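Handout, page 2. Input:
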Amino acid sequence: MAGLATAFGSGAMTNTIGEIEDAKAIFVIGSNTTQNHPVIGYRIQQAAKKGAKLIVADPRYIELCDYADVHLQLKPGTNIALLNAMAHVIIKEGLADEKFIAERTENFAALRVTVEEYTPEYAAEITGVPAEDIVKAARLYGEADAAMIFYTMGITQHTTGTDNVLAIANLALLTGNVGKPASGVNPLRGQNNVQGACDMGALPNVLTGYQPVTDAAARAKFAKAWGVELSGRVGLTVTEMFNAAGAKEVRAMYIMGENPYLSDADSAHVRHCMESLDFLVVQDIFMTETASYADVVLPAVSWAEKEGTFTNTERRVQKVNPALKARGQAKADWEILVELAKKLGFAWDYSCAEDIFREITALTPSYAGISYDRLGVNGIHWPCPTPEHPGTTILHVGQFSRGLGHFSGIEHQDPAELPDEEYPFMLTTGRILYHYHTGTMSRRSKGLKFIQNEELMQINPADAQALGVTEHDTVKVTSRRGSVKSRLQITDTVPKGVVFMTFHFKETAANLLTNPETCPTAKIPELKACAVKIEKA
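Output:
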C-alpha cells in the first residue's frame, strides 16, 4: 500500500514464514488466516502451542480465536481506534522501546499527542471491545521480545485502509519490532503471485521494483531498454479505470486473470462500465462472467502449464516449471502478449520466459542478483542486489529504506456507511476455506462443490430471532446499491448487528451490495463495511 511506504518501503512482509514459530507474541488483525492462508494459519497455531501469546482482532469469532490469549471482537471499521488505544497503553505503561524510537524513528511526538485521548475506555466506546481486553492485548504485544503482526484485506479494504496500515506500523515502531527475527509487519497476499505482480510494476505509480514513474532517471533507464519514451504521469487504479470507462474517458480495456464482474465493489456499476467500453479483451483460463462481456477472449494457460517465476507473500522468488502441456489454442501469458505486440508493430524478440526474467533483473535493483540458475528448488528472497548476495530474509535490519521510520498521528474515522433505521445491519465480506475468490476455479471442483456450493450468510441467533427466520431460510439482503438473495447460517461467531457473506457465488453476488467508496490514498474500495437491511424472502 502506498501509505506504508513512509516506513516500510514496498508494503511486503518484513519477515518470513519460517520465523513464525519463534515469535513470542503474534497479533493477527483483519485476517481470517486459517481460512485464507491455511499454511501460515497452521504456523500461527503451532507458535501458540509453543507458548507464543496470540492476539486476534476480528469482528467474527474465527478459528484462531480457539488459540488466542485475547480476542478483540471489534466493530467493522474501527481498527484505528483499537490500535491507537494499544499504543496509548504501551506508552503509558513504559513498554515502548525508547532506544529504538530515539535512534531509528522520527515524528514520535505526533503519535504521542494523537493517542493521548485514546484511552482503553474511550476506544471501547468506539470499537465495542472491553477496555480490559485492549489493555491485555497491549501488554502482551508490548512485553514480548519478538512480536509479529499479520494483516490482510480486513485492514486494507476500508476508506481508511492506508491509515489502518500506518496505525499498525506505529505499533511495530513503538516497540522496536522491526528489523529483527520473528517480528515485523507482515501483510499476507491474497493470491499466489500478488507480490510478484506488484514487484513487476502492476501498479499505476511504479515500474518494476517500485521505481516511481515520476522519477526521470528511472524512466530514462526503461526507455533506453525498451526503445520508447515513457510517460511520467501516474496511471489509474482499477476502481478509477472503471469509473473512467463509465464516463467514456477510457474506451478500451484489457483484463487478464481477473473477474471484476463478481469481485469488485458495487458490481452492478462495474458491469455498466464494462458495457460502456468500445472494446474489451479478456485473457483467462476459463470463460468467466467477465469474459462473457468481452469482444475478444484470449485463452491463457494455468500455472501448471507455464514456465517462469512467482514471488510469494514472503518475497521469495521461485521458479515454476510446466507439469502439463498447453491444450488447444491456449498459450502462456507472455506468448500472447508478444504476439499481440508484434501485431501492433513492436519488434519484441523474447524467445522464452527466461529472456524476460533476464530483462527484469537488469532493470530491477532488488532482483539484480537473481537468475534461474540461482533459484534452485527453494528460491531467493528479494532484495538480492548482486549475484553473490544470499537474498534478504529480514527487511530493515539497522536502517529503513527511507532512513528513519516515520510515526503517523492517525485519527479514527467511521466507515463511509453506518447502520441506521432503514439499513440496520453492517455487512462484512470475506472468503471461506473451500472456495477461492469468485469461484472461477474452485467451483469447477466436484469435491469442493459437494462441501459447499451456495452462499450461507452468517447471522447472529438474536438477530435471526428478531427477523423471524431460521437456519437455511432464504432472505433478501439489500444495500443502497442492490439486492441479493441468500440462505442463512445462524451462528454466534458473528456479533449482533453484523452479518457476513463471501463473494464466491455468482448466484448470490455479494459485491452487488458493497460500497465503492475508496481510501483516498490507495483507492481501494470499502468492501469490508456497508449497511444492509434483511427481510425474509
